[in-house]
Specification:
This protein has one domain (2-218): Metal-dependent hydrolases (TIM Barrel, Alpha-Beta Barrel). The chain has helices at residues 19-28, 46-55, 92-101, 142-155, 185-194; strands at residues 2-7, 33-36, 58-61, 63-67, 70-75, 105-108, 133-137, 159-162, 174-178, 197-203, 206-209. It is of the alpha/beta class. Residues 3-69 form the Polymerase/histidinol phosphatase N-terminal domain. GO terms for molecular function: 5'-3' DNA exonuclease activity; 5'-3' RNA exonuclease activity.
Length: 221
């Protein structure tokens, strides 16, 4: 099962991608589902879920949070009550316990992008609270993805991938392979925690998974 774990639509406020265009492209590219991770709001993606249900396409919802430790994908939140922004950033110390309390997961997005992202300089390797790492991002440079792969090998945690799409042409450029079929957000979270996932990129019309640097059972809890 292939799921694009990092997608945006016009409801993020920084693009004009219509949900129907995202869904149509996802289907054409062989995706089984997508995750809508609008910027700094879980509630913003509600209209996308409604459209997807009408179209019979599986959509999960998360949020991409602009934290003091970089952009982090959070899955498990059900509203926007977690928001406690001070200035430009949300402090990870305030959102972390709320995600953990609902059994959710935290995944640093595009960890080596130079501007506005988690990186070695602000403590990626000491983030003992993250559940996985976004290893491939469709909007990254090859160098940024290569650095993320190296970090994944060192951290020994599950690896994910997403397109970070803001335009239809970008949908599904990278995706996460799930060993088991998931139909609910709870199942998705459980499979990521268990490490039964792998980052993949679209290559010649088919998805190619990265080789696992460690056995699934060896992933850090």
């Amino acid at each position: 099962m292939f799921i694009d774990l990092h997608c945006h639509t016009r409801y993020s406020g920084d693009n004009t991608l219509e949900p129907l265009d995202l869904i149509d492209t996802a289907r054409r590219r062989g995706l089984d589902a997508v995750c809508i991770t609008e910027h700094d709001s879980f509630c913003a993606s509600e209209p996308v879920e409604e459209i997807a249900q009408a179209e019979g396409f599986l959509v999960f919802r998360g949020v991409e949070i602009n934290t003091d430790k970089g952009h982090i994908l959070a899955f498990g939140l059900r509203d926007d009550s977690w928001k406690e922004r001070t200035g430009y950033y949300t402090k990870i110390a305030s959102v972390r316990p709320k995600v953990e309390a609902c059994g959710g997961i935290l995944i640093p997005a595009h960890p080596f992008r130079i501007i506005g992202a988690a990186s070695v300089s602000n403590g990626l390797f000491s983030m003992d609270y993250i559940n996985a790492l976004e290893v491939l991002n469709g909007e990254n440079t090859e160098r940024e993805n290569a650095l993320a792969i190296e970090a994944w090998e060192r951290l020994r945690i599950p690896g994910t991938a997403g397109s970070d799409c803001h335009f239809a042409r970008e949908v599904g450029s990278c995706a996460t392979w799930f060993e088991r079929t998931v139909g609910t957000l709870e199942e998705l979270i459980s499979e990521v925690k268990a490490g039964r996932v792998a980052p993949a990129r679209l290559d010649g019309g088919e998805y190619s998974r990265l080789p696992m640097p460690h056995r699934l059972g060896e992933c850090k809890e």
